[in-house]
Amino acid sequence: MSKLLLILFSLAALFQNSNNPGISFDNLITRIRDQKISKAEALKEFTKDIASTEDYCFKQKIKNYNSQEWVFPLKGYSVRSIGGKNGSGYVVNGYNFFDGNKHTGHPAHDIFINDRNQDCIDDKTKMPVEVLSISGGIVIGVEKSWEEKSDLRGGRYIWIYDPSSKVLFYYAHNSEVKVNAGDVVKPGDVIAFVGRTGLNAFNKRSPTHLHLMCLRLDNTGIPVPYSIYKELLKMKKK
Ligand SMILES: [Zn+2]
Hints:
Blueprint: H1 2-19, H2 21-33, H3 39-59, E1 108-112, E2 130-132, E3 137-142, E4 156-162, E5 167-174, E6 176-177, E7 184-185, E8 190-193, E9 209-217, E10 223-225, H4 229-234
Antiparallel strand pairs: 1-9, 2-8, 3-4, 3-7, 4-5, 5-9, 6-8, 9-10
Helix pairs in contact: 2-3
Bound molecules: zinc ion (ZN).
Zinc ion binds at residues 106, 108, 110, 211.
């Protein structure tokens, strides 16, 4: 009897896993990144994955958080550590999500940590710096296996989709990723440690930082760059 129960439980777990839209979304994001799929086909699949992710979150009764509950993405840091002046590091310059690893522009904010010797350990706390999820949502893409010779620009990265704001959050250059595709996160959850992974981030001339990009679905469902600077100013600090 107990053996039968065990089999039933494993089957249920398998079923739930195959139903988790984060897994197929992660697969799509990797193919877009590596330009293994045409833009038209990618948009079709993207639209489908967004719909099944929203459906999943609704059916699983995953809690919605509004932007007043958002958390600043680096533990122990604040807006003072954002690169540029008043968010001037954010440059769209033709960025298109469907260009993958070959995209143009920098529609993102880089947030720098105190790391003069570039060992990814905070010079003041002597600890790695935790990357926190800004919003609630579901992990729809991760890369954990970046190596020094890779031409991946994002290094070890995380994509999270928040169905309540319709924003995709991208956290790049981490030293270590702590979540998996399909995981549900809430604001303030530890998702990674700040690192130097990625083609340019690995270079000596690049100070250690988190690359934070947000894409918001427009009214046709296409992910377009969205500057989150104004929200960053108001986020809760941990
Ligand atoms: Zn950047």
